[in-house]
């Protein structure tokens, strides 16, 4: 049986958070599911999951959105890896990134959490940083605004105009990683 990729979109649960910067990872998963005609369903792990292929003959994906708050995302991710008998090297975490300008995507494998509490919790719960990250730039807050407040706010009107393109690009990056590998995806998206 083909080993699937586990693609996790980090965010906070509930409609109040759905349109915030912190939930851009889950927006990317919604885009991927819509491309493959996949539907999210409740799963025995603490997550909603959509499984399938985005294209006929394409790689098998397990798209997952933890039902927990961002800072405790690790538990569901760890449960999902165990449930599907996957190694962290088959995990792709899609998350917001303050240190990258809005409208920019950066891809990397391994490393630390870079101050991102959701990624920190995934590393702690899985015991490994050996997974791929699709880091979706949301930019730093203007002036002296607190980063925590910035990520919990909705995108600005100007950002919302470009948000569909950013989400689509991040979904393209996930597809490229799972079909052609990380290096090919980095060459395509980091050159921009």
Automatic annotation (TrEMBL):
<feature type="binding site">
    <location>
        <position position="117"/>
    </location>
    <ligand>
        <name>tRNA</name>
    </ligand>
</feature>
<feature type="binding site">
    <location>
        <position position="71"/>
    </location>
    <ligand>
        <name>tRNA</name>
    </ligand>
</feature>
<feature type="site" description="Stabilizes the basic form of H active site to accept a proton">
    <location>
        <position position="96"/>
    </location>
</feature>
<feature type="binding site">
    <location>
        <position position="17"/>
    </location>
    <ligand>
        <name>tRNA</name>
    </ligand>
</feature>
<keyword id="KW-0378">Hydrolase</keyword>
<comment type="similarity">
    <text>Belongs to the PTH family.</text>
</comment>
<dbReference type="GO" id="GO:0004045">
    <property type="term" value="F:peptidyl-tRNA hydrolase activity"/>
</dbReference>
<feature type="binding site">
    <location>
        <position position="69"/>
    </location>
    <ligand>
        <name>tRNA</name>
    </ligand>
</feature>
<dbReference type="InterPro" id="IPR036416">
    <property type="entry name" value="Pept_tRNA_hydro_sf"/>
</dbReference>
<keyword id="KW-0694">RNA-binding</keyword>
<comment type="subunit">
    <text>Monomer.</text>
</comment>
<dbReference type="Pfam" id="PF01195">
    <property type="entry name" value="Pept_tRNA_hydro"/>
</dbReference>
<keyword id="KW-0820">tRNA-binding</keyword>
<keyword id="KW-0963">Cytoplasm</keyword>
<comment type="function">
    <text>Hydrolyzes ribosome-free peptidyl-tRNAs (with 1 or more amino acids incorporated), which drop off the ribosome during protein synthesis, or as a result of ribosome stalling.</text>
</comment>
<dbReference type="InterPro" id="IPR001328">
    <property type="entry name" value="Pept_tRNA_hydro"/>
</dbReference>
<comment type="function">
    <text>Catalyzes the release of premature peptidyl moieties from peptidyl-tRNA molecules trapped in stalled 50S ribosomal subunits, and thus maintains levels of free tRNAs and 50S ribosomes.</text>
</comment>
<feature type="site" description="Discriminates between blocked and unblocked aminoacyl-tRNA">
    <location>
        <position position="12"/>
    </location>
</feature>
<protein>
    <recommendedName>
        <fullName>Peptidyl-tRNA hydrolase</fullName>
        <ecNumber>3.1.1.29</ecNumber>
    </recommendedName>
</protein>
<feature type="active site" description="Proton acceptor">
    <location>
        <position position="22"/>
    </location>
</feature>
<dbReference type="InterPro" id="IPR018171">
    <property type="entry name" value="Pept_tRNA_hydro_CS"/>
</dbReference>
């Amino acid at each position: 049986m083909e080993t699937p990729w586990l693609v996790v979109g980090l965010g906070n649960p509930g409609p109040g958070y759905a349109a915030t910067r912190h939930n851009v990872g889950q927006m990317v998963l919604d885009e991927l599911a819509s491309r493959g005609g996949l539907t999210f369903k409740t799963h025995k792990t603490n997550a909603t999951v959509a499984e399938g292929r985005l294209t006929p003959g394409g790689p098998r994906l397990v798209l997952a959105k933890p039902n927990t708050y961002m800072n405790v995302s690790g538990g569901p991710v760890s449960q999902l890896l165990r449930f599907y008998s996957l190694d962290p090297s088959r995990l792709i975490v899609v998350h917001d990134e303050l240190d990258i300008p809005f409208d920019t995507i950066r891809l990397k494998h391994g490393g630390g959490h870079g101050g991102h509490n959701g990624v920190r919790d995934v590393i702690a719960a899985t015991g490994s940083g050996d997974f791929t990250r699709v880091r979706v730039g949301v930019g730093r807050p203007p002036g002296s605004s607190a980063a925590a407040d910035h990520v919990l706010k909705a995108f600005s009107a100007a950002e919302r105009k470009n948000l569909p393109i950013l989400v689509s690009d991040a979904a393209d990056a996930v597809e490229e990683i799972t079909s052609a590998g990380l290096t090919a995806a980095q060459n395509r998206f980091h050159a921009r």
